[in-house]
Amino acid sequence: DLSRLAAKLNTEKGQRWLYSWLKAPNHYYPRTAMPNLFLDPIAETDATGNPTGKTTDPAADIMAYLLSVPTDWKPEQVAPPGDLSQEEMLAL
């Protein structure tokens, strides 16, 4: 359950745990439904393919996003799944 994640993990230790969980969820629970996304840092390159010396860390980016969601967020009212056609669902 990712609700109120920022409120639950607002400490440095909590952020380290979330980062580690995103990188290797089966380390915490072997039968987890969360897939291992292989979120290894990526070396950035310029338009010609030469390394820029910078790296992007997808796990850190996902962690920052999850922790930025307001703690009072509530899902919007949506139609039940059977009420929409595939085209209408894709347009959402």
| Helix-strand topology string | HHEEHH
The chain-level mean pLDDT equals 86
Give the number of helices: 4
- The gyration radius over C-alpha positions equals 18 Å
| First-last Cα distance | 23 Å
Helix coverage percent of residues?
A: 25-40%
Give the low-confidence spans. Answer: none
Largest sheet: 2 strands, antiparallel
Category by helix and strand content: alpha+beta
Q: How much beta, percentage-wise?
A: 5-15%
Strands ordered across the widest β-sheet: 1-2
The number of distinct β-strands equals 2
Coarse shape: extended
Topology at a glance:
Layout: H1 5-8, H2 12-23, E1 42-45, E2 51-56, H3 58-68, H4 86-91
Antiparallel strand pairs: 1-2
Helix pairs in contact: 2-3
Question: What are its keywords?
Answer:
single chain; 92 residues; alpha+beta; two-stranded antiparallel sheet; 4 helices
Description:
The protein has 92 residues and is α+β, with helices and mostly antiparallel strands. It contains four helices and two strands, in the order ααββαα. A two-stranded antiparallel sheet has the order 1-2. Strand 1 and strand 2 form a beta hairpin. The model has no long low-confidence stretch (mean pLDDT 86).
